[in-house]
UniProtKB/TrEMBL annotation:
Protein name stated in the entry: Uncharacterized protein
Top-level lineage group: Eukaryota
Length: 251
C-alpha cells in the first residue's frame, strides 16, 4: 500500500530546478514528508562545525513553518512551527546531480531524519535539512528522534505524578516506567475519583469514563498531555491476600 501526502490550499514550494523537483516528487511517493524548503524559512542560523575538507559545513537553525508530521489526534498532517533543525551545506559541488547523489546516500543512512533540501541564495550552496537530534531539556540525544522523545526526561516527568500511598506500589510503577521503550506508552497510578459513569460488564470487569484520561506524547510540543473523558475498562482483583499478590497479577 502506498500513502501519498496531499497538500490542500497553496502548492508546496518548488526548488525551481526540474531535476530537484522530480527528485522531491519521487520521495513523496515513498511516503516520506520530504520537501523543498525556501532558505528564508530558516532563522537563528549558527555554525556547529566545519569539515576540514571544505566540502561540507553544519549549522543549527530554526525552521519557521516547521516540518510536516502526522498528528494522531487530528488524523492529518500538520506543521510543527519553530522547529530546531540541522543544516548540512554542500560546498564546491560541481553539479546538481552530484548533490542529489549525496542526498540519496544520506536518505539510505538517515531515511526518517531528513526533512528536505534547500539552497542558500547568497552562496548558492545546496543544503540537506536534518532533524535536530538532541533533547532541549537535558541536551542528550533523543531516544526516538522522529518523535523527539527523551526517555530519561519522561521518567523524571512521570516520577512527579501522584503517589499511590504505598511504597511497594510506587516502586513497582517506577520499575515499569524505567522499562518503557516506546514514546507513546505510559504507566501510572490513577486515583479512583478519576472514574465516573462506572457500569458493570461482568463479575470482574466494569466500564468507566476516565476524567483526565491517559497521558500521551504530543510531538508538536515535545511533552506529555492528556485527552479528556476516555472510556476505559476496570478489572477488579477480589480476595487477594496482599499487595504482592496483586502486583504479581499485574505483571
Amino acid at each position: 500500500m502506498v500513502y501519498i501526502i496531499l497538500f490542500k490550499g497553496r502548492s508546496p514550494a518548488l526548488g525551481g530546478n526540474e531535476k530537484i523537483d522530480d527528485f522531491i516528487q519521487k520521495q513523496k511517493i515513498r511516503d516520506i514528508a520530504f520537501e523543498w524548503i525556501p532558505y528564508n524559512q530558516f532563522k537563528n542560523i549558527k555554525e556547529i562545525n566545519e569539515n576540514n575538507s571544505s566540502f561540507t559545513a553544519v549549522y543549527s537553525a530554526i525552521w519557521k513553518d516547521g516540518p510536516l508530521y502526522w498528528c494522531d489526534l487530528d488524523e492529518k498532517y500538520i506543521r510543527r512551527s519553530d522547529d530546531d533543525v540541522v543544516l548540512k551545506y554542500s560546498h564546491n559541488i560541481r553539479s546538481i546531480g552530484e548533490f542529489l547523489d549525496n542526498v540519496k546516500q544520506s536518505l539510505i543512512i538517515n531515511d526518517n531524519m531528513i526533512y528536505g533540501i534547500s539552497q542558500d541564495q547568497n552562496t548558492k550552496d545546496y543544503i540537506i535539512v536534518f532533524q535536530d537530534i538532541y533533547c532541549k531539556k537535558c541536551n542528550e540525544r533523543y531516544t526516538n528522534i522522529s518523535y523527539k522523545w527523551c526517555k530519561s526526561c519522561q521518567i523524571k516527568d512521570l516520577t512527579n505524578l501522584v503517589s499511590s500511598g504505598s511504597e511497594k506500589i510506587d516502586n513497582f510503577i517506577q520499575e515499569r516506567q524505567i522499562k518503557i521503550n516506546d514514546y507513546d506508552f505510559v504507566f501510572e497510578w490513577i486515583p479512583y475519583n478519576q472514574f465516573f459513569i462506572i457500569e458493570e460488564m461482568n463479575e470482574d470487569s466494569l466500564s468507566a469514563i476516565w476524567i483526565d484520561v491517559p497521558l500521551y506524547c504530543e510531538t508538536q510540543e515535545g511533552k506529555y498531555v492528556r485527552r479528556s473523558d476516555k472510556k476505559i475498562v476496570l478489572k477488579y482483583s477480589h480476595n487477594l491476600q496482599n499487595i504482592d499478590e496483586f502486583l504479581n497479577e499485574v505483571c
